[in-house]
Design goal:
This protein is α+β, with helices and mostly antiparallel strands. Helices cover 24% and strands 29% of the residues. It contains 7 helices and 17 strands. A hairpin with a 2-residue loop joins β13 (168-173) and β14. α1 (6-12) packs across α2 (18-26). The chain is elongated. The chain starts with a strand and ends in a 6-residue tail after the last helix.
Length: 244
């Protein structure tokens, strides 16, 4: 009988991403046939998978859901118990199980996806696909031409032992700029600015690929549907970039 990895099963059933599934398994929140699940284990059809006391799965897979959320500052994007702040899933309170695609750090705001589609998460998160994400950043002092050139060319981040990929920067105010990235290193924009002698006062993500934040209010969410959803999935399937 065909077997499937437990983390993949949890992802396909709309519970969480594979990475988050591994964390849940490791923390002892998942059982299989009444016994604690083990990292890397495989399961067969008919086995009883339970997360936090609630059965997972069934005959029908959940209907695909993709939400665009305007995350406020102070809300975290992990569903673990490590940070006592409210997480994005609790804040949205959607009637079906959904989980975040990637992260925005606690002090950042703006667009983030919530979904129950594991394959969608994997495609968006895969760094080799070079999917664009755009941010509006306010800093503590005037943005100079030299600063823009260095940001666009790539900044050496000693803490991460990496040079950032080339990006686009558009100055939109004396101390404000838009930046479009195709990678997602931990606190990347903040680290880049700090390396160049700036500190970030406000950071808002306004676009992921073709999906824009628009006038969505802070803390609110909407479904990504229709042509917007079709364009997004086309881009993911074809590996296309979206140019402003």
């Amino acid at each position: 009988m065909e077997e499937i990895r437990l983390n993949k099963y949890l992802s396909e059933m709309g519970v969480c991403s594979r990475r988050e599934a591994d964390r849940l398994i490791e923390s002892g929140k998942v059982t299989v046939d009444g016994a604690p699940a083990l990292m890397g284990m495989k399961i067969r059809k008919g086995q009883a998978v339970v997360l936090d006391g609630k059965p997972v799965g069934g005959i029908l897979r959940p209907k695909p859901v993709l939400l665009a959320v305007n995350k406020p500052r102070g809300v975290v994007c992990t569903t673990s118990d490590k940070d006592r702040a409210m997480n994005i899933v609790e804040m949205v309170g959607y009637q079906e199980r959904v989980y975040p695609v990637g992260r925005l750090d606690k002090d950042s705001e703006g667009l983030i996806f919530l979904t129950n589609q594991g394959q969608l998460v994997n495609r968006i998160m895969r760094g080799s696909n070079h999917h664009e994400k755009e941010y509006v950043v306010q800093v503590n002092k005037p943005v100079t031409e030299e600063f823009v050139k260095k940001m666009e060319a790539g900044v050496w981040l000693g803490e991460l032992d990496v040079t950032t990929k080339p990006c686009r920067v558009l100055v939109t105010g004396k101390q404000e700029f838009h930046i479009t990235l195709t990678q997602g290193l931990n606190r990347q924009i903040r680290r880049m600015c700090e390396t160049l002698g700036y500190s970030v006062r406000s950071l808002v993500r306004v676009r992921i690929m073709n999906v824009r934040l628009g006038n969505l209010k802070t803390g609110a969410f909407r479904k990504v549907t229709g042509q917007e959803y079709e364009t997004l999935t086309e881009m993911l399937e074809n590996g296309r970039k979206f140019n402003i």
